[in-house]
Amino acid sequence: MKKILEMISDEMKQAFTTAGYDGELGKVTLSNRPDLCEYQCNGAMAGAKRYKKAPIAIAQEVAGALDGSGIFSEVSAVNPGFLNLKLNPEFVKDYLVKMSQDEKFGLDAPEHPKKIMIDYGGPNVAKPLHVGHLRSAIIGESVKRIARYVGHEVTGDIHLGDWGLQMGLIITELQERHPDLVYFDAAYTGEYPAEPPFTISELEEIYPTASGKSKEDAAYKEKAMDATFQLQSGVRGYRALWNHIMSVSVADLKKNYLNLNVEFDLWKGESDVQNLIPPMVEYMKDGGYAYISEGALVVDVKEETDTKEIPPCMILKSDGASLYNTTDLATIRDRMDTIHPDTIIYVVDKRQELYFEQVFRCARKTKLVQPETELKFLGFGTMNGRDGKPFKTREGGVMRLEALIQEINEEMYRKIMSQESRSMPEKEAAETAKIVALSALKYGDLSNQASKDYIFDIDRFTSSEGDTGPYILYTIARIKSILAKYKETGGQPEEAVLQPACSEAEKSLMLELVGFNAMMEAACEETAPHKVCAYIYGLANAFNHFYHETKILTEEDAAKKEGWIALLVLAGKVLETCINVLGFSAPERM
Ligand code: ARG
Predict the structure, then answer these.
(1) What is the tens place of the pLDDT at every residue in 16-44?
(2) N or C terminus: fewer CB in 10 A for the chain?
(3) How far is the CA of 133 from the centre of ligand 1 (A)?
(4) In the Cβ-directed half-sphere of 428, how many Cα atoms lie within 13 Å?
(5) How confident is the model at residue 401 (pLDDT cuts 50, 70, 90)?
(6) Ligand 1 in contact with 124 (CB < 6 A)?
(7) Beta carbon of 159 within 6 Å of any ligand 1 atom
(8) How far is the CA of 381 from the centre of ligand 1 (A)?
């Protein structure tokens, strides 16, 4: 469906042409004075010089040419030469009718659907998830859902950190504690036990212990590095332990992400591309891209236009070991070979921006990607506490994700239970609290532009008023409850027919709704979930204003009432579609 702004602009362009001016002057925008008009056109101002005429005179002529237009109910030329516009309620209603009948509410399929890969989540196996990984998961999931909704073919990959020193540390600590385990017996040739020699809680305790020890004890660190090397060279017992660490840890990660309503299509990790590294290194050497510098193998990635120093991309260290970026480059190669994406989007902490700049340049220079392949870095800012510093526990430690979720669930439960009008049994309240808490957490994050730091304020995020997830869910619950009551009295919401707006509040609500397709397209194009948030906040405000001004269910004029019900049905569906792409859902009631 054509976007409403395009339809209006077309009409305006036609009027400029009819009046004898360049049609291009007829561009229409949303009004920046909503108290005066709904849309505006500043074309007469722009054309004044060219046509050597007072802008107001041009505006008046154009307004004259719009006499009898079906799209506008009001076109006024105001000094010094603006065209203030109001839409014909009939036209708006017709647009909404078409929107209601369309599966995606007027959003057209993309002309060229793309294959998009999203690299997000990026947790490190055996290390507890912390809030830093939260943002990647929340933002990436939403970016994925938006692109998929718009009609692209999207694959989300978790890109597990499963190959680094943390594995060697765990193995070393296990050996300290249980030297008799069969995995450490080099002479052992039999099968290894199917059951892991630890549980997830032990594993989570082992890693920080080992990491702490390695910082203080150089010999311990040496051992861990050696264990990492042994593992990477394929020592059987270590491989078997690695498999246990993976299965225990991944099962736990799956549970955690499920709670967050985050789903990955691929659970690939750094380990999966290790065998691709040697041939890639050969390829880079053979192509003359990589050369030895101070013993290390590097690829130059600086460009003439650089204003700051971009260091070379190191492929192998002087001891032959590969690095974080070697793995990322091999992963790009793997993705190009198996998925052939048009675009790869990385949702990673913005502090890794320079790093990714090097990786992208290296991938381009060494032709691991096609010239037209788009590599996009979506860097996010830090989640801070109310003191403006990176979020910590009350004791000052790194906040575990589970603890954070627990805290927000409890706060939400407390708020729901303390409502005066509460009619919900405790069990339902606990379930509802979880659903609403997730909206609080995700909306609190997504409503900010991703690159900005933001303050995690549990009190504000869980509030049912203001720009919050719970406010949106309350609005949806309110719509659902009105529709349910309408049904109880024999009405059929799905059959209801829209009517032209008969009040300002109703029209404002309609005008919010018509922007859905343009908003969703922009949110996808700009990988900007915050645009979806801003849209539903505006929509929810317009709905609540309308609701407070209108006695919907007691209206005597049947056609009017039905029209409102139809409007509610559409608003409810649009809101639910939007929260779905943001990655949360609404409870039946609150
Ligand atoms: N595991 C990494 C970390 O915790 C994030 C991975 C980001 N993705 C990537 N392709 N490098 O910092």
Answers:
(1) 999 999 999 999 999 988 899 999 999 99
(2) N
(3) 9
(4) 8
(5) confident
(6) yes
(7) yes
(8) 15
